[in-house]
Amino acid sequence: MYDVTRRRFIQLSGAGGLALLPGMIRPARAAGGRIALYNGQHRPPVEALVAAFTKATGIEVAIRHGNSAQLASQIVEEGANSPADVFWSEESPSLVATARKGLLAPLLPETLKQVGAEWSAKDGSWIGATARCRVIVYNKSMIEEAALPASVLDFAAESWKGKVAFAPNSGAFQQQIMAIAILKGRDTALAWLKGLRDFGETYNSDSAAVEAVEGGDLPIALSNNYYWYALAREIGAADMNSAIYNIGHGDPGTLVTVSGAGVLKSAKNVEAAQSFVAFMVSAEGQQAIVDAIAEYPLRPGIVSPFPLTPFDKLDPAPVTPDQLGDAEEALTLLREAGLA
Amino acid sequence: MSDALGDLEAGAGRIRLPSTRRRGRPSSLLVLAAAIPTILILLPIIYVVLRSWNAGWYAIAAELARPRTALLFWNTTVLTVSVTVLSAIIGFAGAWLTERCDLPGRAIWRVALSLPLAMPAFVASFAWKSMGSEFQGLTGAVLILTLESFPLIYLPVAAALRSMDPAMEEVSRSLGRSPRYTFLAVVVPRALPALGGGALLVAAHMLSEFGALALLRVQTLTTAIFQQYELQFDNATAAVLSALLMLLCLPVVLAEIRLRHGHRVSKVGRNTARQRALVPLGRYAFPAILGLVALTILSLGIPFGRLGYWLLVGLSAGRGLDTLGPALGGSISLAIAGTLVTTIVALPLVLLALKSGGIFARIADRLPYVVHGLPGLVVALALVYFAIRLFPPLYQTAWVLFAAYAILFLPLAQSAIRASAELVPRELEEVARTLGRGPLKAFASVTLPALAPGLGAALALVALELMRELTATLILAPTGVSTLATEVWSHTNDGAYAAAAPFAALLVLISGVPVYLFTRRTLIPRRG
């Protein structure tokens, strides 16, 4: 009985598979009204922007989602043959690394003018689109806000043993290491990491760390601000057990990092690619992005619908994306501390 | 891994002549066809060696001497050994209960014990960890992964217990041996190859597991390799760790070869359809049922319950539902086509190894098992590296992805095909040749039909793995193509669990199709 079924199964799947093959062997090269976007940023803002862009210009966008650092290494590996037209990175270091390999084309001066110069590459190879902030997320029923320390550096101590969640894999965490190294010196950064290694709890991502705090596993997480808002969106802000705390006063615990994009030198459709990045920092594009994720718009005059701490009240660490560079030193430090 | 699957197949092989292991000269066509998978398999090995070489001897030595490397090695070993042993115990006990005891509702329990195969480990891990931090860590990972891995042992062992000739046990009992002695001296040794084959499959899965372990905060060689690629563009460390992982696969491969040799003995007298007396459970019936109920709740109830919970409670429910269709289409089309490619590529490798006893044929046959423990990420990056340099027009076409699928899952296809191929007497094809058929035609009309059961099992098993494959798909799929697995990954990445739930549920459901096709041979009693 099953012999017949099996034979039919093989025949059917064979026929089906072969019928499907031709449709899939076309490479997704950008041609005419179509660009290929390598995306390392979270999906909701990207999908919102792409929808608005296609509606406004008729240009279609094929999106390849991935992790920013992995996409950057893929672009480097692809070199001049890269099928990508635009690279949208969650973190600036991936853009810096791609630019250093000479793979990014200069953006249009008109585009670069739309956001403050401090948020983009000096040579105009990439532009910041949104900013986010390193924050402390704490569980309200486990710890009082008043009991939180004055600096993120204080967490690397035995008194906080088992209480602090952090994600060494996170790109933003690496930028925080860089900021500490720049502001307080390499030795301080290394000692901080060793302290976190001994007394902190490692998680695979910021979002996992925030969930652990929300779930009451431990009281504190070092995270980007929007992971808390993403969870609040899922659970309902009123039901949240956790809250955000901004350290401020220039401490590296409050670090502003940017997400941005660049056009590849090897882009097949340069004009459309440039117009995509221009749209990203246009009033319409910025609004579409910040409506979908709790990040700060970098174009002046745009308002986020999320109840974010006002950008000018953050009082963040005085470090620019340009100073953070490709954050390679952070990896060396992570390795020296035995966290990677 | 091979003959564990073989036991599922053996009954379906209709031609059963004693196989004389005469080695002939394989045709050059076959050698040529077998060269394709061999070259594919060599790509990631060359890539890992090349990248480690770039790092230099000093860096390799320094990497190996780090305390962290020792920790990763230890975690990987503990996890692999523990999950394998626990799965073996649960799988064997389950098989014994459903095949040899007068357990009420055996048909239902067979289904319940096979179904966890359709549950991807990362879905189950997500469900567990969202219930509390106590399930995180090495202990939690061992328990959770065991719950989803044991069917890989249950299925072949159940098939072996079923197909064993009862005469041996009856002889033992009639000679005055106790039931316990008979069980240990007659039943266990003959179920061992099936058990071992399944255990090796579990072990290889554990070596390359990433998603579940990342969620459960366990660091192994594989998660460290992922971390390296996430952190940096220079992958020397990752390459060294990959090489270490391949070395860890070696004992697994060697054990598999040993088991295969031991297994030949037990091939005599399979496929007996004679009725056997079931062991009365008596007062143990209640605890046995209780245990099976608990096992079912833990392995199926909790993951499904959790998916339903998020769907009802999460506010992101319904987000991105319009991509459900394309993702389902992507999963099915990539899995079916990839399965066909993998199976077709595996076929000459098996035939060559059977026909020629030469050292090269045997190495070519074993090499895929060494690569089987490598994470998909390493294989994918190796293919990016070679495709861009050697075949730029093929890059980011589905063909490169299929090549990755073939590299990753060849051993599954090989094992299933070999089980059938070993049963085909070579003389048959020679008879066809002497009757004037050409080599291809003789193969197509004689050998291929006899291989059908093995090919069917290979297709189902590979399709199951491909549907949940994540990392190679993310890196190599044509831009814009999504699958259910990649959608689950991106939604959970954004913390949108309710949005991820329908994709995860659909993934489990369609995984049920190959599981059904693969297990029905075991689950549905054969007709005399």
Automatic annotation (TrEMBL), chain B:
<feature type="transmembrane region" description="Helical">
    <location>
        <begin position="284"/>
        <end position="312"/>
    </location>
</feature>
<feature type="transmembrane region" description="Helical">
    <location>
        <begin position="181"/>
        <end position="207"/>
    </location>
</feature>
<keyword id="KW-1003">Cell membrane</keyword>
<dbReference type="InterPro" id="IPR035906">
    <property type="entry name" value="MetI-like_sf"/>
</dbReference>
<feature type="transmembrane region" description="Helical">
    <location>
        <begin position="70"/>
        <end position="95"/>
    </location>
</feature>
<dbReference type="Pfam" id="PF00528">
    <property type="entry name" value="BPD_transp_1"/>
</dbReference>
<feature type="transmembrane region" description="Helical">
    <location>
        <begin position="29"/>
        <end position="50"/>
    </location>
</feature>
<feature type="transmembrane region" description="Helical">
    <location>
        <begin position="140"/>
        <end position="161"/>
    </location>
</feature>
<keyword id="KW-0812">Transmembrane</keyword>
<keyword id="KW-0472">Membrane</keyword>
<feature type="transmembrane region" description="Helical">
    <location>
        <begin position="442"/>
        <end position="464"/>
    </location>
</feature>
<protein>
    <submittedName>
        <fullName>Iron(III) transport system permease protein</fullName>
    </submittedName>
</protein>
<dbReference type="GO" id="GO:0005886">
    <property type="term" value="C:plasma membrane"/>
</dbReference>
<feature type="transmembrane region" description="Helical">
    <location>
        <begin position="366"/>
        <end position="388"/>
    </location>
</feature>
<dbReference type="InterPro" id="IPR000515">
    <property type="entry name" value="MetI-like"/>
</dbReference>
<keyword id="KW-1133">Transmembrane helix</keyword>
<feature type="domain" description="ABC transmembrane type-1">
    <location>
        <begin position="328"/>
        <end position="518"/>
    </location>
</feature>
<dbReference type="GO" id="GO:0055085">
    <property type="term" value="P:transmembrane transport"/>
</dbReference>
<keyword id="KW-0997">Cell inner membrane</keyword>
<comment type="similarity">
    <text>Belongs to the binding-protein-dependent transport system permease family.</text>
</comment>
<feature type="transmembrane region" description="Helical">
    <location>
        <begin position="496"/>
        <end position="518"/>
    </location>
</feature>
<feature type="transmembrane region" description="Helical">
    <location>
        <begin position="332"/>
        <end position="354"/>
    </location>
</feature>
<feature type="transmembrane region" description="Helical">
    <location>
        <begin position="394"/>
        <end position="413"/>
    </location>
</feature>
<feature type="transmembrane region" description="Helical">
    <location>
        <begin position="107"/>
        <end position="128"/>
    </location>
</feature>
<keyword id="KW-0813">Transport</keyword>
<feature type="transmembrane region" description="Helical">
    <location>
        <begin position="236"/>
        <end position="257"/>
    </location>
</feature>
<feature type="domain" description="ABC transmembrane type-1">
    <location>
        <begin position="73"/>
        <end position="254"/>
    </location>
</feature>
